[in-house]
Amino acid sequence: MSTNPANSQKTGQSESLTENPYALVAGGVALGVLIGMLIPRSQKERELLEPAGRQIADRVTGTVQAVKDAGKAEIDSLLPSKEAAQDRVGALFGNLVDAAKGAAQKA
To answer: Are the CB atoms for 80 and 88 separated by under 8 Å?
Structure first.
């Protein structure tokens, strides 16, 4: 009795789909999106869906702006102020000058 490799492969695929139903759902959604993209929209669909699309776009734009503002505020809080940075650079420069003077005196 010989086993058909194609038949065992089909059985393995069907078993993996029943073990992972999320893959089946994701494949179905992807197929639905693809079919939806290929079918042209009617005028009535445009009339009904355009306001909802605008609302979603406005919300997404507002959310993106809020995230950008929050991120900028977080970065600004982590970075030193301009005055503090100038003080640090001045202190570093002063230390370098003092070190150079000390090295010149030892030489």
So the answer is: yes
- For residue 11, the model assigns a pLDDT of 57
pTM of the model as a whole: 0.37
Extract the residue ranges of the chain whose pLDDT is less than 50. 1-2
DSSP string over the chain: ----HHHHHHHHHHHHHHH-HHHHHHHHHHHHHHHHHHSPPPHHHHHHHHHHHHHHHHHHHHHHHHHHHHHHHHHHHHSPPHHHHHHHHHHHHHHHHHHHHHHHHH-
Amino acid at 16: S
